[in-house]
Design goal:
The structure is a single chain. This protein is mainly α. The protein has two helices and two strands, in the order ααββ. A hairpin with a 4-residue loop joins strand 1 and strand 2 (74-75). Helix 1 runs antiparallel to helix 2 (49-67).
Length: 98
């Protein structure tokens, strides 16, 4: 994915995170939290599940409210100013797992 221009024009694509909200990082964290819930159940750590579920709910809201474009029917990265970058990146396909 390093050949996709996901940061704002004028930023160094190799050395700048551009203070963006990255769709792949958010969706990977969401998948991780769901896996942790399953692990907690299996290991008998039921007391940990509410905090994990709260994180899942919060992160799902961020992803769906801020990173989804209804017009494009696609998830995008979000620039620092709150606009979506419009690059249809393979990163969005983490949503199929998360």
């Amino acid at each position: 994915m390093d050949n996709q221009p996901r940061v704002e024009p004028g930023r160094n694509v190799s050395h700048s995170h551009a203070h963006m909200v990255w769709v792949d990082a958010c969706l990977q964290a969401l998948l991780d939290a769901r896996c942790l819930v399953m692990m907690a159940r299996e290991l008998g750590h039921e007391q940990d599940i509410p905090a994990l579920q709260a994180e899942i709910d919060s992160l799902s809201k961020v992803v769906n409210d801020r990173l989804w474009s209804e017009e494009d029917a696609f998830y995008f990265d979000e620039y620092r100013d709150g606009t979506l970058n419009g690059v249809k990146s393979v990163a969005a396909y983490w949503a199929l797992l998360a």
